[in-house]
Amino acid sequence: MTDKNSLQNVFVEKKAKQNYVREMFDAIAYRYDFLNHLLSFGLDFYWRWFAIRKLDLKGGEKIIDTACGTGDFSIMASKRNPSMIFGVDVSLNMLKIFRQKAMKKGIKKIHLVCASAENLPFKSEVFDVCLVAFGVRNFSDLETGLREIHRVLKNGGKIAVLEFSMPKQPFKLFYLFYFRRILPFIGKLFSKHENAYTYLPESVLRFPEGEEFAKILNNCGFKRIEIHRLTFGIVTLYIGVKN
Ligand SMILES: C[S@@+](CC[C@H](N)C(=O)[O-])C[C@H]1O[C@@H](n2cnc3c(N)ncnc32)[C@H](O)[C@@H]1O
Q: Which residues does S-adenosyl-L-methionine bind (predicted)?
């Protein structure tokens, strides 16, 4: 991507960003779910539910959950009776928690792969649906990741991206206070990680949103892009179709 505020201008090289992000998620993995639900007031369940409803899954789909983390998106999608789900993430510790949760729930059709979105170890045109929740912002190379997802999707396959965005005034003022002051404080308190929850607002504030992100999806080959702003615009769902 070309945005001059992009994190890609902050990290010396793409590999450095990937290592930084992987180490950060490896370190906070054991606290990730707890903090995710606490800091979003449980709204993260609603955002994933909304995305899955909009995808209108009929059953039998082959799904890839890129940057799957601890797997909440895949676990929710598994209730729609897909034929298989592949969860892909760079953080082994996040995948370990995902595996424990899937085993506990007795979900057998989920396969986990430790790999990066920018270099997916799959053949072209094999998946019907790609899910990415709160992951694209962390890609070391956004366009490479999106083009890889495009490659592994079948023609007519769909991508659903959930990502944080900025609400409009007057809510924006309260939200920025929460996001810059309260969230990093609570995040650090519970995760004991120095930077993870300051990285979150910083990376969100720098990331392209709305029409700007839709344009990037379009450049990477996705068409008929839908933009749904959720919960006063603090999260946006993007759905795009391959061809
Ligand atoms: C904020 S978490 C989101 C996890 C999950 N999708 C959710 O909704 O809770 C971001 C995840 O993206 C993963 N990640 C970051 N960059 C990645 C990349 N380039 N390829 C694959 N996974 C990546 C991280 O390891 C982390 O697990």
A: 70, 89
| CA 194/CA 30 separation, integer angstroms | 15
Those residues whose C-beta lies under 8 Å from the C-beta of residue 61, and which sit 6 or more positions away, are: 80, 82, 83, 128, 129
Can you give the pTM of this predicted structure? Answer: 0.91
**Residues near 121 by beta carbon (within 8 Å), at least 6 away in sequence:** 113, 115
Asked whether 116 lines ligand 1 (CB < 6 A), one says: yes
For residue 89, say whether it is annotated as part of any ligand binding site. Answer: yes
Average pLDDT over residues 162-182: 90
Beta carbons of 197 and 182 less than 8 angstroms apart: no
Residue 135 Cβ contacting ligand 1 at under 6 Å: yes
How much is the average pLDDT of 52-71? 97
pLDDT in tens, 184-242: 889 888 888 878 778 788 888 889 999 999 999 999 999 999 999 999 999 999 999 99
Q: How far is CA 84 from CA 51, 53, 75, 191, in A?
A: 18, 18, 11, 32
Question: What are the chain's domains?
Answer: 7-242 (3.40.50.150)
Q: Which two tokens stand for residue 131?
A: 């899910």
Q: Is 134 in the pocket of ligand 1 (CB under 6 A)?
A: yes
